[in-house]
Amino acid sequence: MLRLPVTTRFAPSPSGPLHVGHLLAACEARRLATLHGGRCLLRIEDIDTARTRNPEWVRLMLQDLVWLGLAFDGEVMVQSRRFGVYAAVLEQLRQRGLLYPCFCTRAEIRARQEEISRAPHGCPAARYPGTCRALPPELVQEKLAAGVPHAWRVNMRRVEDSIGCPLWEDLRRGVQRCVPSACDDAVLARKDAPVAYHLAVVVDDAAQGVSLVTRGEDLFEATHIHRALQGALGLPVPQYCHHRLLCDASGKRLAKRDGARSIASLRAAGWSPQRLLDSLQAALRRGGRWEE
Ligand code: GLU
């Protein structure tokens, strides 16, 4: 059952122009908040400075939201202003032995994953194979002292030892059980990005008092990682609603990089905000199939 009062959020990553997929996410967050007399917040997820390096994207996104008539409550949270907060949380996890440095290169990880997936009882190929999880401490110290580039991963086995297997609720799919040791040892910080999405999102949902996270179903699996991190950090646990994604006529998910479906390009082609919102509703009635 939905917990009241409801606070939702729309949390776009400004790695390109606002597109119709964003519009769906924004409308879902706004709709559920309004329906239940709650608040809908806006958060700019711009921690990945390599992908979101163009500050102009944020301005254009905000401009598109205004043009669409989508209003948000409270202050806008901007993740790139919060690196200090994330650093403190990472340090806390590190002190508690819940993080380990990972020195693997992408190529090494891929090679090991392929090896494992060929074995009869290998782990799912997409997961980190755990190479650096149990490196001898002297070797870790040596590599750190030598400045070998590394990421910091969460040790999900240790998280499970500490919090067990907690529950979370998806409003469409019901109660889910998170088994931390079955989750990826996700990267929480990298040398070129001081914090990664998985950590920033749980810290910020808690900081903003988000009670209901609405987002696309492509992030359903990621929510297990988020639930494990919430448990490890003692953070409040929101409810979730993973909505379906928009697809094209062939059923393929609409990709962000598909500039043709950016809000700005549709506006330039003469679409009004109402036509866009009506088309979104029509797409939802067709099971998510977007037609122009
Ligand atoms: N920033 C993410 C995106 O634009 C969404 C994250 C979330 O809703 O948790 O895909």
Bound molecules: glutamic acid
CA(first)-CA(last) distance: 36 Å
In N-to-C order, the SSE pattern is EHEHEHEHHEHEEEHEHEHH
Strand proportion, as a percent range, falls in: 5-15%
Largest sheet: 3 strands, parallel
Strand line-up of the largest beta sheet: 1-2-3
Number of strands: 10
The general outline is globular
Contiguous helical run count: 10
User: What is the mean pLDDT?
Assistant: 93
- CA gyration radius, whole angstroms: 20 Å
What is the SS-derived class?
A: alpha/beta
Low-confidence stretches: none
Share of helix, binned: 40-55%
Key terms for this structure?
14% strand, three-stranded parallel sheet, 292 residues, 40% helix, alpha/beta, globular, three-stranded antiparallel sheet, binds glutamic acid
Overview of the molecule:
The protein has ten helices and ten strands. It is of the alpha/beta class and 292 residues long. The chain has a three-stranded parallel β-sheet with strand order 1-2-3. Helix 6 crosses helix 8 (220-233). The longest helix has 16 residues, at 20-35. The chain is globular and about 65 Å long. It starts with 6 loop residues before the first strand and ends in a 7-residue tail after the last helix. The mean pLDDT is 93. The chain binds glutamic acid. Glutamic acid binds next to loops.
